[in-house]
Amino acid sequence: MSLIHLSAAEQAAALAAGEVTSVELTQAHLDQIAATNRPENGVGLNSFLHVDAEGALAQAAASDARRAAGAPLHELDGVPIAIKDVLATEGLPTTAGSKILEGWIPPYDGTVTAKIKAAGLPILGKTNMDEFAMGSANENSAYGPVKNPWDHTRIPGGSGGGSAAAVSSFQAALAIGSDTGGSIRQPGAMTGTVGVKPTYGSVSRYGVIALANSLDQLGPVTRTVLDSALLHELIGGHDPMDSTSVATAVTGLADAARQGAAGDLAGVRVGIVKELQGDAWSAPVVERFEESIEILKGLGAEVVEVSLPSFVHAMAAYYLILPAECSSNLAKFDAMRYGLRVTPDGDPSAEDVMRASRDAGFGNEVKRRILIGTYALSSGYYDAYYGQAQKIRTLIIEDFTKAFEQVDVLVSPTAPTTAWALGEKADDPLANYLQDLATIPANLAGVPGISIPSGVSSVDGLPTGIQFLAPVLEDARLYRVGAALEAALTKQWGAPIAAPAYAGNGNGEA
Amino acid sequence: MPELSRDEVRHLADLARIDLSDAELDHLAPQLNVILEAVASIQGVAGDDVAATSHPIPMTNVFREDVIRPSLTPAQALAMAPATEDDKFSVPRILGEE
Q1: Residue A39 has what pLDDT?
Q2: Active site residue A204
Q3: Residue A397, domain member (yes or no)
Q4: CATH code where residue A101 lies
Q5: Which parts of the sequence belong to the Amidase domain (chain A) (predicted)?
Q6: Cα gap A212→A339, rounded to integer Å
Q7: Torsion over CA of A337, A339, A344 and A346, rounded to 10 degrees?
């Protein structure tokens, strides 16, 4: 097995044992990126918008020097990582997938970037994403869509299609994602990988280009549950630079994953969400979901159905709250201090320049959401739409509170279908929004969620995902249950599922 | 929900400082109506007895120590500006023609 096919935990162990250097590991991943990313000829994955080979190798050499001196900074010191282009990285271009930020190089690091650097992980580059994280297919990137490593004619999910495709294609074992309505979990389901949306406020948002402040959360994107736990612990914790940061230490996640992998879920109460079943869910996804439920029962979990009645209003509430927040957030792109400036002919005023720049710099989905948000916040409609949406948010939080009096975790399929064809829904916003049915409630309520692979569809052979949700600050439960199911499924499959063209020594050419 | 007319979409775009072309208006206006129709279902769902939630983890009065910390230099802050002059952001005229 080659270096890139090792999990991050295995890479860390190989580094600690002196079996490999960080430079070798980093070079192996850079080679895989060079062989498979290739946006220029249209056949590659296009998962990276920027690759920093020189910087990553320099950081790797520094890591090797620390280890040789007996002073690694962290368990993951020397294990390379990819960062979604939504997070500020000093000296590396950061565009959020938008033309309006093309070429922007931040003068500072986001807190999570700083934590990654302080732990010694070489940063491979920045991953592609839907523009300002608005999308479920990665087709709203201003820099072209990402391809799904399982089938290059399919979408990888969104908005974090780049990070998910990168870990799925062994370009990196670790990546950072951001999840506002499912942008970590849904791409995980589409690409057969693991993704976690932590409890709101438990990972700093400082330096994240905001989509919707009350919903956004950074989290880990990996191939294994344990790797997500290790990365989650690394990036989590209180940050005085983020006024919404929760002052609770983020610990015990890797221990929970190791406990779960032992396979005993006796006494764990799992609730199947009644409202996340029905006709919207495709038969192959449900087939794999029900198989996972039987496995959970076999591991000792007590499975019941629970009703969270306000979930039926979650999508509508979300697609009012999110546009309202983003229309306000994106007002900062005014062509005055940074970003694209388009100057119309004649003697234009600053407002004329703003209008022209925002028209040229924003893509269609961004414009749609800004316009919806502007409408929802306008006087006369505020109470009927935004006000109602905020009240529904309260009802959804109450639903979660009641449900977690009965069960320890909730479970549903992550997404209603497997990955669809590139272009199929590209100009149909509502069809994309419906993909987020199962993931949105967690963001509205601030609770943590994990998606892990539940197998592959018996119809199209593409991966399916299963999602667990836990109460606020009980992220450890996700890792225990997720690792238990992951271990049982892997045993059943004989090996972890992987995109066939990239498994073994494949480089996507198959 | 009343259907948004093309002129109303143009007005919203003006409020949002986005200079939409006629072709963009033709393309986006019907899509906005589809989206608004889909979210209209929430009207009247929650009554006056339900409090609004703006933030999932409520917090009040978040302070930090008032200490001097390193910050960006003028050169760093201006490095990505579209135009600068005398260590300042240079912007187009802000007043109208009249």
Answers
A1: 77
A2: no
A3: yes
A4: 3.90.1300.10
A5: 24-478
A6: 20
A7: 30
